[in-house]
Amino acid sequence: MKNLTTPLSEEAISQLNVGDVVSISGYIYCGRDAVLPKIVKHAEEGTLADVNVDLQGSVIFHTAVSPAGVGPTSSNKLEIESSFEPLSRHGVKMHLGKGAIKPETVKALAEQNAVFAIIPPVTALLESQTSEREVICYPELGMEAFHRIKVNNYQAIIAAAKGESIYG
Fold it and tell me: CA nearest 116: which of 96, 133, 138, 141?
């Protein structure tokens, strides 16, 4: 088990390999298909500060945040997977979700020294390891707004790193 605390350093990410089990603590962002294209647009336009987002060393969990808790959504949805490269270029070091991603996405992650980790769909367990939640921007999207949560020992498995993927 490799213990990671956000924000994640370049060195910490460069030491991860496919199959590693990690435990993540600290603040992470949560977003999925409704909001990630908006965050990419802010990143590309240089306006992340306008929506109170700092992606340097960050983790983005592909999930909605509801009163029932958080659980991973499929990361290979077009709006989500297409956010990996630009968000990694703008500082995201880890993308958390579930499902296989394309070889091109695996390569783009490697080029940015970023990784993709899968997290089991265990909403109740993850809720017990979430101590704070805050809507950062786009509150009109409800549970699909861009959130920041504080987590304690979220466990995940590195699924793509250094140009390799557990999905082949």
Answer: 96
Q: Give the Cα separation of 120 and 56 in Å (integer).
A: 25
- Do 83 and 37 contact (CB within 8 A), yes or no? yes
Nearest to 38 by CA among 57, 60, 56: 60
- The model's pTM is 0.82
Q: Are 23 and 154 in contact (CB under 8 A)?
A: yes
Instruction: Provide the 3-class DSSP secondary structure of residue 29.
Output: strand
**30-47: average pLDDT:** 97
DSSP 140-154: GGGGGSEEEEEEEEE
Secondary structure class of 4 (helix, strand, coil): strand
How does pLDDT run across 80-138, given as a tens digit for each residue?
999 999 999 999 999 999 989 999 999 999 999 999 999 876 776 777 888 999 999 99
Where would I find the H helices in the chain?
10-14, 36-45, 78-81, 84-89, 103-111, 123-128
